[in-house]
Design the sequence.
């Protein structure tokens, strides 16, 4: 059973308090049901507007399902973490870490900007879903770790 | 995720989706959508009550739509919410499957 725990850490207080909430998921799609209540609670905590929450759900679902289906190749027994932090009053950042082989959705090379000619264009792994993720987030930052991947997805908060 | 169907005048099959079209929601309706697509020739997919649409949800719409289109049928998407429509537009699906907000216009597009 996966766990939801928030907050698991309170970062050093600087100008703005940086609370980090963490969700740990198993590498199985069923575990993604845990995302919804977690994100909804964070939306309240960080006053994230509904439209942005929609984008958060969309991006996390895409990124995490990519990790589970492609990064881990659908194999159970692995885990990934999702951290949520608000580095300042204007932004909330969700950071996904896994121990899968390299996979960089922030790379333009994975986004094939081809004309849409067939509905099948939307069904290619690593294709249009990632394009959606780029369109609904404010920033995507990928980092290759020693034994995994880190993807930070940023969302702007209204002033 | 709930799915209901209605056979309308003119041979139009209306499929109403209700809930979140996330991974779980998509899995819940995939089989029914494919069964409907197997027999429908004029398919109206009612999105009024869809509160979320992710890429797997898109897949659950596009695959049956493709099945209908491939046999010469027609498909329209009806009344998505603003955010759901933004997903349809961002993925350019609206260029392949027309989106209508007026029911009479949606039905007319299927004739």
Sequence:
């Amino acid at each position: 059973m996966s766990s939801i725990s928030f907050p698991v850490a309170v970062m050093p207080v600087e100008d703005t308090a940086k609370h980090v909430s963490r969700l740990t998921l198993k590498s199985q799609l069923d575990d993604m049901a845990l995302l919804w209540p977690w994100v909804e609670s964070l939306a309240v905590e960080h006053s994230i507007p509904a439209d942005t929450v929609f984008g958060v759900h969309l991006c996390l679902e895409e990124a995490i399902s990519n990790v589970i289906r492609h990064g881990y190749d659908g194999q159970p027994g692995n885990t990934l973490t999702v951290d949520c932090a608000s580095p300042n009053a204007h932004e909330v950042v969700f950071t996904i870490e896994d121990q899968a082989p390299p996979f960089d959705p922030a790379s333009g090379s994975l986004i094939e900007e081809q004309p849409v000619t067939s509905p099948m264009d939307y069904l290619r792994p690593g294709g249009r879903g990632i394009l959606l993720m780029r369109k609904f987030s404010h920033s995507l930052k990928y980092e290759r770790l020693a034994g995994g991947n880190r993807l930070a997805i940023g969302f702007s908060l209204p002033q | 995720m709930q799915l209901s169907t209605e056979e309308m005048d003119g041979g139009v099959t209306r499929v109403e989706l209700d809930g979140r079209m996330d991974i779980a929601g998509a899995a819940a309706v995939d089989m029914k959508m494919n069964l409907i697509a197997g027999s429908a020739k004029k398919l109206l997919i009612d999105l009024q009550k869809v509160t979320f649409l992710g890429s797997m949800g898109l897949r659950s719409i596009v695959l049956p739509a493709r099945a209908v289109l491939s046999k010469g049928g027609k498909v329209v998407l009806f009344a998505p919410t603003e955010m759901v429509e933004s997903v349809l537009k961002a993925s350019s699906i609206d260029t392949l499957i027309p989106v209508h907000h007026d029911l009479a216009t949606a039905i007319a597009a299927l004739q």
User: Anything to note?
Assistant: DSSP finds four helices and five strands in chain B. The mean pLDDT of chain B is 95.
